[in-house]
Design brief:
Helix content: 40-55%
Oligomer: single chain
Radius of gyration: 50 Å
Largest sheet: 8 strands, mixed, barrel
Distance between the termini: 170 Å
Low-confidence stretches: 1-20
Number of domains: 5
CATH superfamily of the largest domain: EAL domain
Strand content: 15-25%
Strand order of the largest sheet: 28-29-31-32-33-34-35-36
CATH architecture of the largest domain: Alpha-Beta Barrel
Length: about 950
């Protein structure tokens, strides 16, 4: 080979080698540059997280997890006497008397305790004797330490903080120790202090003192929450005071006395244990020092350096695959935590590893981005999201509450939810012919939707679907058209129309709707029309009778003793009576009559009434014969009492008016003891309107000052002198004039307003009575409603206190109707009121119930004999014998008799002859106002 050829080959070889080397150098430079950029970004992100404070929270989380997995026992040198909830309940007082602490100190010191620490505030002086006893016990023990602490000063003071320390008498023989603990950013206790400078003196903390610390009393140390402080030997304070604890328990031990009861609020949040009392935290600090486990924080830079080295090595190596590198970083993170855990387990060392973990996390993110590229990563995430969405949609479809079936153009089912398989009782639907597995109505409508080229609004329909087992279910369904996209081989997508059938079983909803529709018109117990259904029927029946020129008859009857039947036999018997009545009405009296159960005890009938006939009378007689006979139900013989009210109405009147008129007649006849049947007359409407008007106006009467008190004299029959008055309520309406008490008092009793009226009358009568020249007795009537609904005891007491009226001059009159009030402890109420000094009178004696049986059981001082026993001349021996019998009765019970209705001197003379001492009537004076009565008393004075 010639020299030229050799030279040419050599030159070419050098060029090739030089070109390859240049390319390699360029790749390395690019790789190094990328690595530097990623490294700078990772370090910057880590630094930001570190100085923003995020890493501190993560470090505490990791330390707490390590503490939870590194449990070590307590030394057993420290015991706790706990002021717990049991102690507070049994001792029953807080703060505890210091003589108890003295007793406790004597016992614990006598048991051989090496140290006694009270984590209790003794900064305030107690009783001199208790403080002396406790001081003597402290001095005798010689090993007592007392808590002192700093706290913020109260608002309004010049000081920023206050030092709470034991009183000087205790500090003469006790060691002061600091019990404050620092709170970290997460509001929990992680550290304790060695001591604190208080008033220029460095004082040891309770933990340092118990932990036998001998260094400088400054700075703080970390608590080892791996110590099982929940296993600290603990006894209840009350058990120590009761000597239920063996003295050997305290021998040679350091004793801490503190409180865990929630009421005392000496509780703090801590890691691992959640909440600990302050005394237990001090014990944990002492245990940490005794076990040489005063935790310190170190090693953050070493962990960071290790993470950085691993990260840089991965950047510079040629290891392929981001998953492998991410795995290596994860292993490095685990190695850091394992090393930190081992160091924490064997040394009092807390290694902050959060910054290193953040660095590794950012490093993994950078490597993934570098290896995959940003766009590939986004594509990868999108693919994962698409798969997850498809999977989720599949689950939603499968688990749909509605039954969903997708039908193709060829009539095959391509998709079906689980609910669809259950609804149509088919284990398999997909792949089946729709007409073989689905009702024909659904398949036909699906085919119509598929063949249609016009978009239509889906319409919900209902189908009655029978099954082979005889069940009939109602299916609500809707058919919609959808387009399914199909991927073509050439890359072009095509679409195919499918019918989506959505079904729901609405059998229960349909039955419920029918039931509600029934209940809206019918009474469920009797099966008769209720009031709403009856009013609808009245409207139709009124049109019918009006067309025939007849009137509409409305009859209501009530089983007036149904409440007593239910009270004595139970609700089931009451329902049975109502069912039986309804059955008889429908069976025997349904021809031309529409029946309704208006309420639990009231039935109504609507019928065509011939103006020239007596249809309503004949119907009432038939009801009496049919319904009024006795019933035999479950062995019980039941008789019913009926009352009837009816009205003949113009068919053109509204149903509500027609019902109201017959109802008014029934309501009126219910209040009549003797009458059973009553027809409506227009005067009832007027009376009802009058009653409603008075009820409305009565609520305004006090505000308008329309009420006054009238007073009728009560006299002694021997000399005719007035000894007292009966207060009577009067209403003078500014437009309607005077309203009788017989008219407005029953209204007030029914609506409960009598409570307010009674209180007003009591106060007004007392006030006016005090203005008169002579100190007469005041008698005032009370309603039964005031006893049953109001707080009568408080009302009387308040009136006496407000007016200053002497209670011994007050007589309260009650009637015999009170004695039938069930559930009312009348005797107790009367005794409570009589304890104020008041007296009670029994009004209208002899006109009500078996009064003789009540007299010995209730504290009455007077009886008022009703005016019905006072005839004009009292010449009838029967009248005289009745009065003499009552006189013997009241004398035997040490009471007085007041005779009402005395109108003539002859009556007064005869009553005086018989031995009556007190009287009331027009002979001595009619009811008069306060001014007139004051004038009458002035003349008598």
């Amino acid at each position: 080979m010639g020299r030229g050829a050799i030279a040419l080959r050599l030159e070419m070889s050098l060029r090739i080698v030089g070109g390859d080397n240049g390319k390699m150098w360029s790749d390395r430079t690019k790789r190094f540059g990328n690595a530097c950029v990623i490294a700078i970004l990772v370090v910057a992100a880590t630094a930001f997280v570190r100085y923003a404070g995020f890493s501190g929270s993560i470090d505490r989380f990791l330390w707490e997890a390590k503490f939870s997995h590194d449990k070590r026992p307590v030394t057993g040198q420290i015991v706790l006497i706990d002021i717990d909830a049991k102690s507070l309940n049994e001792l029953g007082v807080w703060p505890l008397p210091r003589r108890l602490y003295a007793e406790l100190t004597d016992f614990v010191a006598g048991s051989g305790a090496s140290d006694i620490l009270f984590d209790i505030d003794f900064s305030a002086v107690s009783s001199a004797e208790d403080d002396r006893l406790f001081a003597n016990s402290i001095e005798s023990a010689g090993n007592v330490s007392l808590a002192m602490f700093r706290q913020a000063a109260s608002a309004g003071t010049n000081q920023s903080e206050v030092i709470n320390k034991p009183i000087d008498k205790f500090l003469e023989a006790a060691w002061p120790v600091v019990v404050m603990v620092p709170v970290e950013n997460d509001s929990r206790i992680w550290r304790n202090i060695y001591g604190y400078d208080i008033s220029g003196t460095s004082e040891l903390s309770a933990s340092a003192f118990l932990g036998e610390y001998s260094g400088e009393a400054l700075g703080a140390f970390g608590l080892d929450f791996g110590i099982s402080i929940d296993e600290l030997p603990t006894v209840s304070l009350v058990d120590v005071l009761d000597r239920s604890v063996d003295p050997e328990f305290f021998l040679g031990k350091k004793v801490v006395v503190g409180a865990s009861a929630q009421e005392l609020r000496d509780l703090f949040p801590v890691p691992v244990y959640g909440i600990l009392p302050g005394s237990v935290i001090q014990a944990l600090g002492a245990e940490s020092l005794l076990q040489n486990r005063a935790m310190r924080i170190e090693g953050e830079l070493a962990a960071l350096a290790f993470a950085v080295v691993v990260f840089l090595l991965l950047l510079m190596t040629k290891i392929e695959g981001w998953a492998v590198k991410a795995l290596i970083l994860a292993l490095a993170a685990g190695a850091i935590e394992l090393a930190a855990f081992l160091l924490q387990k064997h040394m009092p060392l807390l290694v902050p590893t959060a910054s290193a973990q953040f660095l590794l996390l950012f490093a993994a993110t950078g490597i993934v981005l570098r290896e995959l590229g940003f766009h590939r990563l986004i594509s990868h995430v999108a693919t994962i999201g698409k798969h997850n969405s498809e999977r989720m949609l599949g689950l939603v479809f499968e688990d749909s509450f509605d039954a969903i079936v997708v039908i193709q153009k060829d009539g095959c089912v391509s998709a079906a939810s689980r609910s669809a398989r259950l609804l149509f009782h088919r284990k398999k639907l997909i792949g089946s012919k729709a007409h073989e597995v689905l009702p024909s109505e659904l398949v036909e409508e699906a085919q119509e939707v598929l063949l249609s080229t016009v978009d239509q609004m889906p319409i919900s329909k209902t189908l009655a679907m029978p099954f082979d087992n005889g069940d009939l279910r109602y299916i609500e369904y809707v058919v919609t058209r959808s387009e399914r996209t199909l991927a073509g081989n050439s890359g072009d997508d095509t679409s195919e129309a499918v019918a989506c059938l959505t079904c729901r079983d609405v059998t229960e909803e349909r039955e419920s709707a029918l039931r509600l529709e029934y209940l809206a018109k019918y009474d469920p117990i009797t099966g008769l029309l209720n009031r709403n259904g009856f009013e609808e029927e009245l409207t139709m029946q009124a049109l019918l009778v009006e067309s025939r020129g007849e009137n509409l008859g409305l009859l209501q009857f009530a089983v007036v003793n149904l409440d007593q039947i239910v009270a004595s036999l139970g609700f089931s018997f009451g329902d049975s009576v109502r069912k039986t009545i309804a059955t008889r009405l429908k069976t025997h009296l349904s021809d031309g009559v529409t029946w309704s159960a208006l309420s639990s005890d009231t039935f109504a009938a609507a019928f065509a009434n011939n103006p020239r006939g007596d249809d309503e009378t004949r119907l009432i007689e038939r009801i009496r014969d049919l319904i009024g006979e006795d019933y035999s139900i479950d062995g019980a013989r039941i008789s019913v009492q009926l009352k009837f009210g009816y009205a003949v109405c113009d068919a053109a009147e509204p149903p509500e008016t027609q019902l109201k008129r017959s109802g008014n007649a029934l309501a009126r006849v219910r209040r009549d003891i003797q009458q059973e049947v009553l027809a409506f007359d227009p005067g009832m409407d007027a009376a009802l309107m009058r009653r409603r008007e008075l009820e409305t106006e009565l609520f305004k009467a006090i505000v308008r000052d329309e009420l006054q008190m009238a007073y009728q004299p009560l006299v002694t029959l021997d000399d005719g002198l007035m000894y007292g008055v009966e207060a009577l309520l009067r209403w003078e309406h500014r437009e309607l004039g005077p309203i009788s008490p017989a008219e407005f008092v029953p209204i007030a009793e029914e609506n409960g307003y009598i409570v307010e009226l009674g209180a007003w009358a009591l106060n007004r009568a007392m006030k006016e009575c005090l203005s008169w020249p002579l100190p007469v007795r005041l008698s005032i009537n009370l309603s039964a409603i005031q006893f049953s609904r109001g707080n009568l005891v408080a009302t009387v007491q308040e009136a006496l206190q407000r007016t200053g009226f002497p209670a011994e001059r007050l007589d309260l009159e009650i009637t015999e109707s009170l004695f039938i009030e069930e559930g009312l402890d009348l005797r107790f109420l009367m005794e409570e009121i009589r304890s104020f000094g008041c007296s009670f009178s029994l009004d209208d004696f002899g006109t009500g119930y078996s009064s003789l049986s009540y007299l010995p059981n209730y504290p009455f001082s007077k009886i008022k004999l009703d005016r019905a026993f006072i005839r004009e001349t009292l010449s009838d021996k029967k009248d005289v014998s009745l009065i003499e019998a009552v006189l013997h009765l009241v004398k035997g019970h040490d009471m007085e008799l007041i005779v009402e209705g005395i109108e003539t001197p002859e009556q007064a003379a005869k009553l005086k002859q018989l031995g009556c001492q007190l009287g009331q009537g027009y002979l001595f004076g009619k009811p008069m106002n306060a001014i007139e009565l004051a004038s009458m008393l002035s003349k008598a004075a």
